[in-house]
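Subject line: Sequence and fold of a protein, written as structure tokens
Body of memo: The sequence and its backbone structure tokens, given next.
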Amino acid sequence: MEELSGLVSAVTSRVNGRLRRVGRVLGTGIGRPADSLSALAEAHRQAQRALGVGQEIHGGSAVTHFDQLGVFRLLSLIPDSTELRTYVDEVLGPLADATDPDSADLRETLRVLLETNLNVAESARRLHFHYNTMRYRIGKLERLLGPFTTDPTLRLNLLLALHAARMRGLDQPHRPPIESGLALPADDGLDSLL
């Protein structure tokens, strides 16, 4: 799998070197290996989903494996962006405002705290804050969101909401959400550009 990944990344990088000259990039999705001809269609669907989710999360030139999507694989199955936006708004409350720089800053603090399993010292180090500043921010986040440091279900909901917002671009003021599902652009003959 790693050998395949390296090969696909190298090819994608080389193709993107040429495509960037004309203002385009290539993203790549990798599905699970198909062990029979009948399994090829499913592997193709997985590659398409990996491509769509990878581009939403990492940008247009991402190389993404279906098996490495984690929770994003499940979130991508929700075609209704309105429902995801409602979920994000309900869970993150005032932090869901993508146009407010203070909300974005607190979302980043929350994301790092959750990624470090609430390790205050490590979070402070990653964010270049003093330890006491991080303690203050945790108190502020708990006043806004509830007792996430003691409630594992709330932590899970917060992490899912942050992932959903990131995946669908709901946390970016300049990036509109995808209206329905993962629409992939039609192939417009990029081979002719190479």
Notes: The longest helix spans residues 40-58. Residues 52 and 98 are 22 Å apart (CA to CA).
